[in-house]
Amino acid sequence: MRNGSYPAYRAQQGIKAQDILILLKLLASGEQEWRMVDLASQLGLSQSEVSMALERAKRAGLIDASKKRPIKSAMEEFLLHGLKYVFPAEIGMLCRGIPTSHSAQPLAKKIVSDPNDQYVWPHADGSLRGQAVSPLCEWAPEAARRDPRLHELLALVDALRVGRARERMIAAEEIRARLHAK
């Protein structure tokens, strides 16, 4: 292969956090058929951003060749073992926000935590005061507000990113159960 014949943009186009948001939205939607325009609208992204994200996910082996269905085994491996290293969360100051990690469902039912030990995505319309957690990507909190199933997946992902060992273990079990549910 001649130098320069391989497009330079491909080498620089690794997976992005918004790609994971899109894949989680597809997982939250189950087997429901979807159109790119609807997916873009629901997530607050442009259609071209969704299209490029799906192409990056395909190259990373996280979605099938048709770019319609996430590859669940690959998603499980990446979410459980790689995500926190590729997209680490930052913990910030106390603020009002949208519950995440063990402060949101489904973990809030399973983990009893001190009222002073809450995690939130900073948001003016948030219902909880807690430590700020940087969301997976800037569109995640609004997308989560519109879709409770997506909110649960994002909260589980955050538990993997910021949780203690027990929280990470329970979050991993919940993610596996959702990925392998029929």
Question: What brief labels describe this structure?
Answer:
10 helices; three-stranded mixed sheet; about 180 residues; 3 strands; mainly alpha
Question: H/E series, N to C?
Answer: HHHHHHEHEEHHH
Overall 3D geometry? globular
Helix content: 40-55%
Radius of gyration, whole Å: 17 Å
Helix and strand topology:
Layout lengths: L7 H4 L5 H12 L7 H8 L3 H14 L11 H10 L1 H4 L4 E9 L7 H4 L8 E4 L5 E6 L6 H7 L1 H15 L2 H15 L3
Parallel strand pairs: 2-3
Antiparallel strand pairs: 1-2, 1-3
Quick structural overview:
The chain is mainly alpha-helical and 182 residues long.
Characterise the protein shown here.
By secondary structure, the protein is mainly α. Helix content is 51%, strand content 10%. It has ten helices and three strands; from the N terminus they run ααααααβαββααα. It has helices at residues 8-11, 17-28, 36-43, 47-60, 72-81, 83-86, 107-110, 140-146, 148-162, 165-179, and strands at residues 91-99, 119-122, 128-133. Strands 1, 2 and 3 form a three-stranded mixed beta sheet that branches. Helix 8 crosses helix 9 (148-162). The N and C termini lie far apart (44 Å). The model has no long low-confidence stretch (mean pLDDT 92).
